[in-house]
Records
---
Amino acid sequence: MTSPPSSVTRRRLLGALGGAALCPAASLALAQDAYPTRPIRMVVGYAPGGSVDMAARVAADILSARLGGSVVIDNLPGAAGVLAAQRVAASRPDGYTLLAGSSNEMAATALVNPSQRYSPLTDLSPIALIATAPVLFVAAPHTGVKNIDQLIALVKRSPGKYSYGSSGVGSTLHFAGELLKQRAGIFMTHIPYRGTGPLTTDLVGGALDFAMLSPTAAAPFIASGRLVPLGITSAQRFPTLPQVPALGEHPLLKGYELNGWFALAGPKHFPAPLAQKLREALQAGLTDPGMRRRLEDGGSIPATGKEDLARLMQEDTAKYAELVKFANVRE
């Protein structure tokens, strides 16, 4: 007959079992401490060279330097960033697939795109803001409009006669135009384009009257006198365009503010320790003057590290939902 285990043996057995139970947690903690141990894939839903791609490359360079690992940009353009966001939303939450996204696919497009297969607020894990991106409202010279007062007077005389362009239905640029119409009490026909290239061609050529454009896309045309800046969508004037008023400065547009933005996100159930590690690395890197200058030269305002990305996504989604109803926006 086998004798029962002694109290010493029982303690050893329980200790061994406890150690075994702790192994998965210990292994996970060790893996997170060592992260990254292989290249991180940063998916960008736009073509190389654009504003989102530029912000992503700044973030990738920061994370590579701060984490001591490789960050590879994977451009997957299509559907205003939706294709890239869907891929990230369906990926494993292991820290090796990130979305370098924009306010389009992280807040706006779900409201107007019935084919979108993810919800930004539930299927993406917000990590950190990279930068905000104000939008310029510009006029073609043939309109004769030099300021917002002239715009309002012109459009009110002939509602529906004049048009404004954006980078697509449900884009941040589109919603910026609809907010302007709502606040000013005017009606212009929205003309969606696939990208800013054809938009600026039509605008400069006189086939379009007004447009919402990024500062970098508009800058060379403003400098040559082929476009007239009327206002910027940020709450304050843009540092590199101090002569252009903020739209919210106009009495009829008081409180107007609607910016694009660029941010890092992962799939849902993203480990909080990895998100914190990425967030701290990015925020530290954004204090570097060289990195900040790269973003500013691209028409963006670098994040301060104090922003709450999850809250920003919720607030902008609610703001866009109101504008969808106002303008009866459909894809």
Note: The first strand starts at residue 40 and ends at 44.
---
Amino acid sequence: MQNFNSNDLKFTYSPLHNAIGEVNSGELFTVETEDCFTGKFRDSENFSSETLAWVLENLDGVTGPIAVRGAKVGDVVAITLHEIEITTPGSVALSPCDDPSPSDWWSQWYGCKSFQIKNGFLHFSKEIKIPVSPLIGCIATAPDRETVLSKMQGPYGGNMDCTEMRAGSTTLLPIAVPGAMIYFGDAKAIMGDGEIVQAPEIGTKITVSVELRPKPKAMNCPRVESKETLTTVVSDTTLDRAIGKAFAELLSWIEDDYDISRVDAALLLAMIAKTGVCQTANALHTGKCSVKRSALFGLRLSEPTLKT
């Protein structure tokens, strides 16, 4: 099995990067990721103005890009996370969180600490142990005409911090350059919705496979599939716009995949869909909209459209 290590982190998503390796559709492989601080904040003694300045300039280093053999522009790559192994303690930067605006708490960092993770639990204190539920915060394909910081997000994926992107899920991303060129990083041991205050950042070794698929005609944003749910993920300048667009994207998904009119699909989702917050910590806020597959059991799948 191929393994891709984190020795050559990238801090951008770019069509100019050379691939660190290549995989086949359906191949199982592993990827090692660093935490978003590149390990600089695992030791509280290491916190200094110089270290902080470096971290702020180099947030969210990602492993990649990994090319997918045969990936063609205009299709999508379905990225399945089979297993997420936590390989480091959970590190956080500390803030007094006393500014009137929580969005400014991120600029108040004064120190760092790490939490032990053992036997599936994060040891918050002597009294409190929290079950971990690791997610991969950054999953991306290379954009076609621009280079963007890895801490950013958009139609190509990126720093979405979506809690649905955990083991057992499949993330669908557009292919904008030959080979797709996929990146992974910024994993969390566990995270509450919104990432108002930083979650414990971890290094991981993830087991992954990819599948090439035709691009659904209505797909304009990342999608996440699991056995239980279908989820759309959208980033925009405001959270209400992101969540509204995520609902619209899910509506188009259901309209295309099931034998139901758009009007009826909208009414149905208004009753059963769940909107949520992925993160509000970045310049673009990320929202999501999900529906349980079980709620769609009464609908018939649409007949596939034959290509001419």
Note: The chain has a mean pLDDT of 95.
---
Amino acid sequence: MNKIIQLITVTSLGLLAAGLTGCKTMSNTPHGTITKADFGKTTDGTPVQIYTLRNSKGMTATIMTYGGIVTSLETPDRNGQFGDVVLGYDHVDGYLKSTPYFGALIGRYGNRIAKGKFSLDGVEYTLATNNVPNHLHGGLKGFDKVVWTVEEAEVGEHGPKLTLTYLSKDGEEGYPGNLTVHAIYTVTEDNALQVKFKATTDKNTVVNLTHHSYFNLRGSGDILDHVVTINADKFTPVDGGLIPTGELRPVAGTPFDFTAPHAVGERINSTDEQIKLGGGYDHNWVLNKKTNEMSLAARVHEPTSGRTMEVWTTQPATQFYTGNFLDGTITGKKGWTYQLRNGFCFEPQHYPDSPNHPAFPTTELKPGETYKSTIIYKFSAE
């Protein structure tokens, strides 16, 4: 049974001005609030809702049922002024068009699978090659392009929480097995956005779920001055199609060494072959951690605003992407035209193309098992 707390109608001029209607407060406690509003419809007429989770300190995450997309994330700067730190659109129509996965929940398999093929139990499966010649982020209609069901929306002791669920049917986008997925978003009292995933299957399959917000901690301009630290001694170099070669290469002595803090723009135009192949950073870092251990993956500091974001995860790796394909053709929130490197992504994950690399940590999920992973984006200012 869906667990939804009784709705109480309230007025929200800000939400109505953004094109939202029917705004309702769903839960209001000392640990925060949840409000719900209509946010338009998909091209086939399916209604889309948007939920705003606000903790008692004012940090706010707004999440759409379409794609589980985080449409805004407001955090304070060093002066206590709140600002939106993720890229996206003001209206649902932007997300329904061609979009580079702004704020999206990614699945069934995050990142790339070479040539859209993998074998499991002696059977070869063929997926869409939507990133020619490879498969990317779940295919033509991945988890970012479906309307999720709200299973629970309530404020608990850790803050406001929204649980979304989706059944990915056997054969969807070419993947085997009926996969039941839960995505649980919480805005915690220590100013973090926590994303938890759970999934079960009735047939052997592969799963690699992640989150794909484009961050800009200053809230405008490029991200070249953002100072990044990544807790990883190795990364997975790629070929011309951004598919891992299978090597785990030490970062030492390369532009990929973020074991000490470096500004994004410091080495992004290096002549390093891997930088050239990615058009910047678009690679997978192998985290210094134990399997399923929750640990710090990365830290990003933006000197103008003072905002700092820590990325914590149970996943074995993270993709770091510097908006290399943003090219000025997309106009987003408040008329901002997104240019090259106006946002960055940290996507905790398993390694790209793992089903085709037996030496990589497995992404196989079997009946009777439960896939679990956690991502935390924690914010502060200094």
Note: Residues 1-19 have pLDDT under 50 and may be disordered.
---
Amino acid sequence: MTLKTSHAPDADPSEHRARLLQAMASVAASQGFAATSIAAIVAEAGVSKRTFYEHFADKDACFLELYRAASASALRTLSDAVQSDRPWQDQVEHALGAYLAHLAGGAQLLRMLFVEIHHLGPAGAQVRREVMQHLADFMLRTINAQRTVLTSTMAVAAVGGIQELVLLAIERGEAAQLGELTASASAVVRLLAGAPAAPATNAQKKGPPKRAD
């Protein structure tokens, strides 16, 4: 996520907030959330601690706002990639490809956000559910534009499956290659919508490479 910031002394409150979020992203991605201090955040943002507390109750609140902002940015990329003149299966695959590429573009920040959100207790769980519901709502709007194909329950299940695929890739150190999950993520959605599977590519038909003897 990139936030445009300015260190002008007369920056308005919304600019201060944006600078603090960008500072949280920079410091936490490089040091880890646990090691990130409010002193480091305000130093990076070029504002005072007083300004920080005018916007956020504590470090956790700043992180949760960053998580929402980064997720909203990724969702905009997902929505903008929809090609409404194509079948929903193609729309979803194209949009998911753009979404995963967007996430891969900020691999270091992505790892911090996806992993740390699970350590912020009930508040983190609530924000994570909010974000997942936004993604599920997008799927429902896109897939059910012409007729109802996907139920709300299956939309949530699809989002959960895709999020777990992303988290697994992060844990394996493969966040920069998230685009390679597009076919698998699309297959999850098709399966839960009860749609036919996409035709297998030549590589898929051949299966995994055989181990040399």
Note: The longest helix spans residues 121-143.
